[in-house]
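To: structure desk
From: M.T.
Subject: fold request, one chain
Message: Could you run this one when you get a chance? Sequence is below, nothing fancy, just the single chain.
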Amino acid sequence: MLERLGHYRILERIGAGGMGEVYRASDTRLGRDVAVKVLPAHFSDSLEVRQRFEREARALASFSHPNICALYDVGRENGIDFLVMEYLEGETLASRLRRGAVPPDQALRIAAEVAAALDAAHRRGIVHRDLKPGNVMITKNAAKLLDFGLAKEPASLIQGGHSSAPTRSEPLTAAGAILGTLDYMAPEQLEGKEADARSDIFSFGAIVYEMLTGRPAFSGASQAGLISAILTAEPARISELQPMTPPALERAVGRCLAKDPEERWQSARDVMFEMKGIASRKTDSPGAAAATPRRGERIIWVAAILALCVGLGFAMLALARQPEVLSRPAHFSIALPDHAVSLFTRVSPDGTTISQTAKNGDQTRLWIRPLDALSARPLEGTEGARAHFWSPDSRFIAFFAGGKLKKIDVNDGSVTDVCDAPGAGPFQLGAWGRDGTILLRVDEAPDHEEGLFRVSSSGGKVERLDIRDGSGNKIQVGWPGFLPDSRHFIGPCLLKPGLDDSRATCLVSLESLQASVLLEAASYALPAPPGYLLFVQGSTLFAQHFDFETLRLSGTPSPVAERMEQWAGIGAPKFSVSENGVLAYQMAGGEADLIWRDRRGAEIGQVGSPASYDSIRLSPDGNRLVAGIVNQRGVRDLWTIDVNRGVPTRVDSDGLDSYAPMWSPDGKKIVYCKAIHAPPFLHARTLAGGEDEVLLPSTGTMQCPTGISSDGRYLLFEDRNPTTGWDVWLLPLGTDPPRATPLIRTPQSETDASFSPDGGWIAYTSDETGRPEVYAQPFQHPGERLRISTSGGSTPRWRRDGKELFYLSADGHLMAVSVTPGKELTPAAPLALFLVGQGSAEGPGYEVSRDGERFLVGSPVPGSQDAAVMVNWMGRLRKN
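Reply: Done. Structure tokens follow.
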């Protein structure tokens, strides 16, 4: 038996494949277990086998996906070629199937994850060609796709045309003219034709069939009989073997197993969405499910569908003409697309489609979901989208991305620039009037002043709106909501800039630009036909009668929905309403558990209770945690939590937003930024009691701390400059008067700056390459600035001894980089530890234990970030 390959010490043999053996080994350099796949010496002279081995290495090297086994290294030692891969603890799906069928809910989860892995491969032009239960590993956290030894690379062609049949061998990949494992091959593969992504989908369907029934989809007494069954026979109905199988799932699997590739699902992405949609549906009752329709049956189905569409068309027309056509409201939640974090949820004015801006890792884009569809689909060309809003005819969606206001035609997918809209913050907001006027608010206007602007939906001149109250005083107005006349709009307003108690909800005339107070409290409000005003107070959505002609409120507000999320201040709302009574909103909460994970990502503990954490920081001794927690009113409060006992203690409770808490080196103070006046600026609070200490008077820009030197002499904070974006500033502590100076200021944005433990280096994030990357540069001694991340990164954190630097990759993985502390900093190649979670940059972030062996990360509570839809919300008024 092998004992060592390079710095990998072989521990045990764990399996064999068609191209060699797999061992569990110890990486003596990084102190972790890995899987080493070895190409035996007697295969080294085989050109075909060596090419397959190299093909697998290239295929795995092109991936960074939570459902694909990661490749760490490739090498050659004493004439032996080997791959070093992620060591997975669990069992193969083949091993699991020996115990019988998999419960439908588990089968759906595994199926969705395998489909996600296939989608990632297919999008890179790679076809697996050997999808089978033995190449799917079931771990505690996810299913992982293995063995790309037979994968077809983008430029390669499948080998075929031979007449010899493959030799069956359960643990090995069949070798021969026909590539793959016979039991799960698509018909076209058996016929020697070229395999494509749809061939993998057939194999996928065979796997899901076997998971649900506990028996193969196709069988035969001999190889010839098995081939004949795959080419000509239909498998037994799943519902005949497992009556509780959802009909939609049986239909989806049947489509995967269609003999003709043209009749199958055409992409693994569609299959993934279908699996997720079925998993999220609770109304698809079990029963006698139809098998894949025959040609005659299809005609009946087409006729039935056409009749249904005509009926739905008349129903939608009636609904559009009469908003109260439904007598009772229907209230339900919808899952986020692709497990992402939803930033905005909207409903089209005609009430047929839900749209969401969702973030997955470091990527945001628009998704739409028709109410009669099972899942959402992304809109290509909307990458980087933030806030969005619909055109009145429900044809276009306007969105902010890349410093522009853009619009996309939801019918043909074409994207057009409307105007420049610099900035990328939460105050990029807008509304589209029936006359083609668009109102937009940006946080970094061309003249470097926040404000509200007017532009035509077809583009052209952008006009600033100078809005004033009845006394002629200038006021700030947040997200606008058009009235049906397009001459007036409603929005939250700040009557006296800098004073939080001067917030209200205003009605503004676009002709005179004069505002009048409609509600004494600030709230995002929307006019809702046939004559209501919807607005949020606390976390409750209310409706009150509002005359669109006289512009007056009457009657008493009535509650419509609870758990409504709303950004504090004059920010963006989290709800919208259609003209025919469909309400869509983001539910308040976004709660997460704070989970301890080891370097493999395994859960090893928990801190505190689920909450809407905004940020977390461990104390210097590691025994306490300071966290920003968003309360039910949308305000961020500061709490400390005993890490060992989970007991929370409130730090402040004055009803004002507190952001970005940091510990002083002695653990006796919390430094943070506080919104006593807008925007927030630097404060400190002694935990033993006392008043807030103002560290630096407000300069009128947002200033939040990011790092404190271990000797307590210096504070790093980020400051948003209208010209240069976010900059890193340095504040010497204990000086009188306090004087801060810019430390890192470029035309790009720099954030997340922190000191190394020895104080010699500063790690930070910069977007100078067009996407966030992590850098390190010397502090107070000459030296070269170094780029730490290689493929996008943010949120750097130092290990307590300074020998390792962690950050979040663009796809949400926690990365580790070994460094040598001192005047010279030599970073090693980044190493992926585990997936922190989708949308990791939007939650509480993460923290590192003193020894760098444990990581505290936020894990969203299932369902807490879902969006909600209410059809015929006015029926709720009668109910109340």
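Reply (cont.): The radius of gyration is 30 Å. Let me know if you need anything else for the meeting.
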